[in-house]
Amino acid sequence: MADMMWAGRFSKQVDENVNAFNSSIAFDGRMYRHDIQGSIAHATMLGDCGIITKEDSLQIIGGLKEILADIESGDLQLDPSAEDIHMFVEAELTKRLGDVGKRLHTSRSRNDQVAVDLRLYLRDEIAEISELVKTLIETIISIAKEHTETVMPGYTHLQRAQPITLAHHLMAYVQMLFRDLERLGDTAKRMNYCPLGCGALAGTTYKTNRQQTSDLLGFTAPMENSLDGVSDRDYCVELNCALSLLMTHLSRFSEEIIMWCSWEFKFIELDDAFATGSSIMPQKKNPDITELIRGKTGRVNGNLVTLLTMMKGLPLAYNKDMQEDKEAIFDTVDNVKLCVRTFTPMLATMRVLKDNMRNAAAKGFINATDCADYLVKKGMPFRDAYKITGTLVAECIEKGVTLETLPIEEYRKMTELFTEDVYDAIDLSACVKERKSYGGPSPDAVKVQIENAELKLKGQI
Ligand code: ARG
User: Would 246 disulfide with which of 49, 175, 180, 433, CB 3.0-4.6 Å?
Assistant: First the structure.
């Protein structure tokens, strides 16, 4: 085993198991680009401030760029026995440049280095996830546009409740996803402060320029307190929290899709490319994708608990416990991306079985509220209208008919206020069209929601 960079103080080599136990390169290796990006900014600043010579600075930057190119081309493999990505890049630089390479770590610690790498890495991930969520929103909107008149039952307690449209239902998810986007944006904004230059914990005696490294790396500003700079992992927790909510939304949507493609509902049919079969039951077509999304939500929530629990007892400043942050947050971002990437085309290709939705809406007396409202509009107090309608529903159930097919004489036995026009008032399409209140399911009201969502996507509101 090669000597550790910190070997000076030690009289023995590290036990092999300890080395493997301690090493994080297996999972932080993915930050190589961000590590090099941070190091280039640091070397530039060291050169500009005269802490190292300009020539050394330029040589270091050139060396780092070559290492980056070699990793990307596959010419340079990450060494799995290295302690972490930071040590690996620095050792490689020194291998290539000799003593000049050893100057890079002047006035820097791995504690501020890892903090800056992780912020840079997650900033990119947030941008990527946000784009995926935007595409999902666009997909939902385009389905909604086709279904502003597709009547379906709205549910409470999973009991048919009142008539809505598929578009109205879908646009509810668009609202949730917009909040997710906003939360991701907020997290990115709060995360965008630069810990580089905080050193191990107590800053540095060199005359550094933290503003410069912060600017070079596109941060809003350097972090104000060096202890906080190296100890803070709020951004991991916040990001995981935002993504737990995103997954919660996808999971609820998934649960509905699972129900909707059951024989009991049969509201939709998934495309063959986005469903799976059974090894024994030839008739099966299973919604595995949505079930996996529901399952992976538990895993993402687990990562949130990992991060919160990892942090809750840590004294300032850096503690090695914090190395555990990466596996948790990386697992979260990886799985969220997988889920959104799979969910979007599955949704785009599913077939909507409008007639089945409509038939379900026609059963279950979901126009009963409208029947009561009809009487209210004719002057009856709501509670009395409610009671009369309830009695009529009971009568329908007994006779095996619906409110639409119950003869007018039966209505008029309850009150003379009922006339033939009651059938217009309880017609399902009419019931939906009349629900024009702001945010409601009427085609016009949903069109407003769609228009606003499109403007929001374009950043116009
Ligand atoms: N691999 C470490 C991590 O991920 C880097 C920081 C190490 N700092 C230290 N003082 N040992 O947290």
Answer: 180
Q: What is the number of the ligand 1 atom nearest to the C-alpha of 28?
A: 4
How confident is the model over 289-319, as pLDDT tens digits? 999 999 999 999 999 999 999 999 999 999 9
Q: How far is the CA of 208 from the centre of ligand 1 (A)?
A: 22
Pairing of strands 221-222, 193-194: parallel
Residue nearest to atom 4 of ligand 1 (CA): 323
10 by DSSP, 3-state: which? Answer: coil
**Measured from the CB, is residue 267 less than 6 Å from ligand 1?**
no
Q: Kind and range of the H or E element at 347?
A: helix 325-349
**% pLDDT > 70, the chain:** 99
Stated length of the chain: 461
Burial of 6: CB neighbours in 10 Å, binned 0-12, 13-18, 19+? exposed
Kindly tell me the sign of the dihedral angle through the C-alpha atoms of 370, 374, 377, 379: negative
Give the 3-state secondary structure of residue 193: strand
Q: Output the six-digit token pair for 445.
A: 């009201």
With a 6 Å cutoff on the Cβ, whether 373 touches ligand 1 is no
Whether residue 1 has pLDDT greater than 70: no
Mean pLDDT in residue range 208-219: 98
Span 169-182, mean pLDDT? 98
Angle between helices 110-146 and 234-260 (to 10 degrees): 30
CB of 114 closer than 6 angstroms to any ligand 1 atom: yes
